[in-house]
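Q: What structure does this chain adopt?
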Amino acid sequence: MKRLPRLALWLFAIAYLLPGFIGREGWKSADITAFGYMAELASGNSDWWRPTLMGRPLDNPALLPYWLGAWFVQAAPTWLAPDFAVRIPFALMLALAMLSTWFGTYYLARSPGAQPVAFAFGGEASPKDYARALGDGGLLALIASLGLAQLSHEATPELVQLGFIGILFYSVSAINYRRRTAGVGFVVGVLGLSLSGAPAIAAMCALASAAVHALDRSNDAEVPGQVHQSAGIDSAAMVITTLAVVWLGVRWGLWRWKVEWPGASWEAWNGFVQMLVWFTWPAWPLAGWTAWRWRRQLFARHASRHLLLPLCFVTVTVLASLACGSSDRVLLLALPPLAAMAAFALPTLQRQVGALVDWFTLLFFSGCGAVIWVVWVAMQTGFPRQPAANVARLAPGFEASLSPLAIAIAALATVAWAWLVQWRVGRHRSAIWKSLVLPASGAAWCWLLLMTLWMPLLNYAQSFNGLVRRTLEQLDPPGCVETVELSLAKVAALQIYGKLQLRPSYRTPACPWLIAEPRADMSAPPSVEPALWVLMASINHPTDGNERVMLFRRR
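A:
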C-alpha cells in the first residue's frame, strides 16, 4: 500500500496553510470586526470576560478566540505588525484541524470493521499502511473542500471552532489506541468548542460520541471481535465531562438561543442545498459513496465506528447550520469528519469514477488558474484589454504592483501543478489516495495564486483601508471623533488602521468631528442634529458604493 511521501505531504499542507495569512489586511466584515475586539482587549480597553468594541458586546458568546488574538498581539515584538501577529494563533488552529483530520482518519481506518477483505493468498497491505494511506486521503479531501479556503484563513471564532472540533473528532477516533491522550483531547475539544462560541455543537457531538463508543464492539487490539472492556467507563466519563462543560457554559453565559430555521419557501431550502453542495465539494459525493458501499455495516446491529462516528459529527453540524439560518460558517465544522468519511470511499472507488473526477478537476482548476494568471498579466500590462478594463471598472483607482517573491512562488506552484497532472495520468494503482490528489492540489494551487498574484487587489477591494485613507484626508486635524450608528467593522478599521480616537456621540467631552453611517436613502441618522453639525463629505469605499460614511464637523 503506497502512501504519500511525508515531505511532500508537509510541503503540500504548508503551501495551502500559509497563503492567506501573510500579507493580508483585515477584510470586511467579520475578519476586521473580530480584530477590533482583540485590539480592544490587548490595549486594556475592554473586560476580558465581556469583550466590547465601542461599548458594544459580542453577538457571538465566544471568548477564547478573542483571548488568543489579544494575547498574541500583546506578546508580539514591536517590529511585528499587529494585524499579522493576531493571525498566528488562527494559522496554528488551521494546522491543528488538518493534523487532527489526518490522525482521526488514521485511527478510524485501523479499527477492525474498516479493514479491507483479506486476499486469499495474502499480500494485502498491513493495517497501519492501509490506515496511513486513508489518513492521507482524509487530509487531501479536507484541503480539496471548496468552502474551506476563505473561512479557514480568517481571524474569526469559526476557525478556532474548526480546530477544536478536529481535536474532539480525533480524540474519539483514537480512544481505543491512545486512551490517555484521547481523554485529554476530549476535554480540551469540548471545553474549547464551548469557549469558542459553539457550546451546543460541542455538547451534541460529545454525547453522540459517547453513544457511539458505548456501542462499539472492538478493542484497541488488532483482533476483531473482542469487547472493549473499558467502553462503558469511557462513555460515562464522556457524558460527565460534557455535562460539566455545559454547566460551566451556563454559568459563564455562553449559551444563547440563536435558532433561525429557514422558511417553508422553495428559495430558502434551495439556497441551503446549493450551499451544501458547493461548500463541501468534493467530499460530499465521496462520503455519500462511502455510506452506500458500507451500508450493510452502517445499518448493522453494531455499526462500525469508522462510519457512525463521522456521520454523527456531520449530521450535528449540518443540522446546526440549517438551524442558524443556513450559515456557511457553521457548516465549516462539518468538513473534518466529512473528509474522513470521504476517505473510506477511495478503496472501493471505480476506475471510471476516478477518471471522471480527475478530468473534471483538471479542466476546472486549470481554467481557474489560467484566468488568475491572465487577469494578473492584464493588471500589470493592460493586455488583454477586456480583463484590464474589468479590473479598472470594478476597482477604480487600484494601482498594480510587482512582487518578485510572489511571482516566483506562483510560478513554482504552477510548475508543480503541471507536474502533478503529468504524474496523475500515469498508472498508480497502489496509491488509493490518487483520486484526491488533483482536487486537493488544484484547490491549493488556485488559492495560492489568488493569495500571491491577486493579494494587492483583494486587499484593495475587501478591506476598509481605502475608505479609511479617504476619511483621514478629510480630517484636519484628526483628533477625537464621535460616531453615530457606525458598523463595528468600520469602527475597527478606523481605530486600527486610522489610529483615530473614536467615542459614541453621547459621551463627553465633545469632539470636533463626527462620523456617521448613512441610512438606506443616504440621509444622515436622525440623531445627527443639523444645528450642531455641518456635513463636510460623504465618503465611499473605492470598490463598493454601498459602503460609505458621512463626515461632519461641529459648528
